[in-house]
Design brief:
279 residues; Rossmann fold; two-stranded antiparallel ribbon; 8 helices; alpha/beta; globular; 7-stranded mixed sheet
Length: 279
């Protein structure tokens, strides 16, 4: 990876890759990911994407290919890209076992244009926990603009910065209510995490691969980066629902199968979906 980052940032990105290489076998064996691919999509995502048959699509930061295989099932000529060699190997195995053709490429998202060569796409899809691992959104937006054909669509579905700002009250016995405890806005640099377990069920991470780094990105920063790269933002959705229960007190919406806070709580956005086109 040679993406022009300073030595400290490059070291944090390398730590993230090691962390995700360690997480991947745990995720692949977990019940968390052992659900049909369609469970990870809201119905509005398919509405926004439109028919995929015969279109060229690349899924950036695809991890196990959980969503990637669904695009191929709907007829897209699909490429999945991830910086973790372990993730790419697992994703290839998952697609092969399902009899689905997806071309998987091991590369950092910042190096995607060089690694994919002359390939250009009708759709670039990314999200659901991807942007927080990117230190520079202007650079990222430029990569997307290069990958898209004229008239092509970026579809970004990502955890809302309000969601990542919320956490339960820290005081014992203070109640289950959520409060703002983490940054919504960007600008304070990397946030270090060092945890023994990943977010799925399964065993502890191996020693030496527990540390990772994330960067906060406000919604304004995301939109501004894409506009600065020459893309035209055409839609921005916000929803109070998630495909999994982030907190134990969340309740399932019977009409969608997704999860949201109890009816008595304030309605706050948990996920957003952004559509942008290349002129």
């Amino acid at each position: 990876m040679d993406s022009g980052f300073d030595q400290a940032t490059a070291a944090m990105m390398l730590a993230n890759r090691r962390n995700w290489d360690a997480r991947t076998p745990i995720h692949a064996a977990s019940a968390f990911y052992g659900v049909p691919a369609e469970c990870w999509f809201a119905s509005f995502e398919w509405d926004d994407l439109g028919p995929l048959g015969g279109r060229d699509l690349v899924h950036l930061q695809c991890h196990l290919g959980t969503e990637t295989v669904a695009f191929a099932e709907r007829g897209a000529r699909t490429v999945g890209l991830d910086f973790s060699e372990q993730a790419v190997q697992q994703a290839r195995g998952i697609a092969d076992r399902q009899g689905i053709h997806v071309d998987y490429v091991r590369a950092d998202v910042y190096d995607a244009v060089g690694e994919l060569g002359d390939s250009r796409f009708d759709v670039v899809y990314t999200g659901k926990g991807a942007l927080c691992y990117l230190p520079d959104l202007d650079h990222w937006a430029g990569v997307i603009a290069e990958l898209l054909r004229p008239g092509g669509l970026l579809y970004l579905v990502e955890f809302h910065p309000v969601l990542t700002s919320l956490a339960p009250k820290p005081d014992p016995g203070a109640g289950p209510e959520l409060v703002l405890r983490h940054d919504y806005l960007e600008g304070r640099g990397a946030i270090e995490h060092d945890g023994t377990h990943t977010y799925t069920d399964g065993p502890a991470l191996p020693v030496g691969a527990t540390r990772g780094y994330e960067w906060a990105h406000g919604l304004g920063e995301v939109v501004t980066a894409l506009v600065g790269a020459g893309l035209i933002v055409t839609r921005l959705r916000e929803t109070e629902q998630l495909p999994w229960p982030r907190w134990e007190r969340m309740v399932r919406d019977e009409s969608t199968g997704w999860w949201k806070l109890p009816p008595a709580d304030a309605r706050v956005p948990m996920l957003y979906a952004l559509s942008a086109t290349k002129p």
